[in-house]
Amino acid sequence: MRPTQIDAAVDIAYGVLIFLAIALIATLENSRIGIAFGIGVFVAYVIHVVWKMARFDPEWMTQVVEETVEQTVGETVEQTVGETVEQTVGQQVGQQVEESLEETVEKRVTPQVERTVEQTVEAQVGQQVEKSVGAAVEESVGKQVSEVQAQVESVEERVDRRPREDQVEELIEESVDKANDDRTNDEDA
After folding, report:
1. How far is CA 184 from the centre of its chain?
2. Is 35 helix (H, G, I), strand (E, B) or coil?
3. What is the rounded distance in angstroms from the CA atom of residue 134 to the CA atom of residue 74?
4. Whole-angstrom Cα distance, residue 96 to residue 102?
5. How far is the C-alpha of 94 from the C-alpha of 46, rounded, in Å?
6. Where are the alpha helices (DSSP H) in 57-188?
7. How far apart are CA 50 and CA 10, in angstroms?
8. How far is CA 45 from the centre of its chain?
9. What is the pTM of this model?
10. Measured between alpha carbons, how far is residue 184 from residues 37, 97, 177, 180, 189 in Å?
C-alpha cells in the first residue's frame, strides 16, 4: 500500500469513529459513555492530523513553534518593559511634581488661603452666630414664658374652683344644722 492510501483509510476510519461517537451520544441513556468515546476519538484525530502535517510538511511544525515562541516572548517583553518603564517614570515624575507642588503651595498659597479663610470665617460665623443665638434665645424664652403662663392659669383655675373660707364655714354650719335637725327628728319619732 502506498502512503496516500494508508492516509485515506485512516481518515475514513476516523470519520466512522466520529460518526459512531455521535450515534452513541444520541442513543445511549447514559450519554457520558458516548461523550467520553467522542472526546477520545476527537483527540486521537487531532494527534493524527498534527502527525500528518508534520510528515508532509516538516517545516510546518518548526514554523508554528517559532511563531508561538515569538509571539509569547514579544508579549512578555513588551509587558515587562512597559510596566518597568511606567513604574520607574511614574515614581520619579511623581516625586518631583509632589516636591515642587508642596514648595509652591507652602510659599504662595498657604498664607493667602489662611488670611482669606480667617477673614471670611470671622465675618460669616459672627453674623450667623448672632442670628442663630438671637433666634434660639427668643424662641426658648418665648416657650418658657408660654409654659409658665399656662401653669399660672392652671393654678388660678384650681384656686377659683376651691371653696373660699366663708363658703367652707357656711357649708360646715349647714351640715351641723342639718345633722342637728336629723337628730331631733329621730328623737321625736
Report:
1. 94
2. helix
3. 76
4. 10
5. 53
6. 58-104, 110-161, 165-188
7. 14
8. 52
9. 0.27
10. 129, 118, 11, 6, 8
Matching residue, cell 460518526 = 19
Residue identified by cell 444520541 is 26
Which set of grid coordinates corresponds to residue 162? 376651691
Helix (H, G, I), strand (E, B) or coil at 33: helix
Q: Nine-digit cell at 18?
A: 466520529
Q: What is the pLDDT along the chain (189 residues), one digit of tens a residue?
A: 677 787 788 888 888 888 887 887 778 777 777 778 778 888 888 877 777 776 666 665 567 777 888 888 888 878 887 788 788 877 887 788 788 777 876 777 677 777 777 888 787 877 787 787 778 878 888 888 888 888 888 888 877 777 677 777 888 888 888 888 877 877 776
Q: Kindly state the cell numbers that stand for 60.
A: 510546518
Nearby residues of 171 by Cβ (< 8 Å), 6 or more positions away: 163
Query: Cell numbers at residue 171, please?
Result: 357649708
CB count within 10 Å of CB 41 equals 20
Written as one letter, the residue type at 148 is V
3 state DSSP class of 185 = helix
User: 88: buried, middle or exposed (CB in 10 Å: 19+, 13-18, 0-12)?
Assistant: exposed
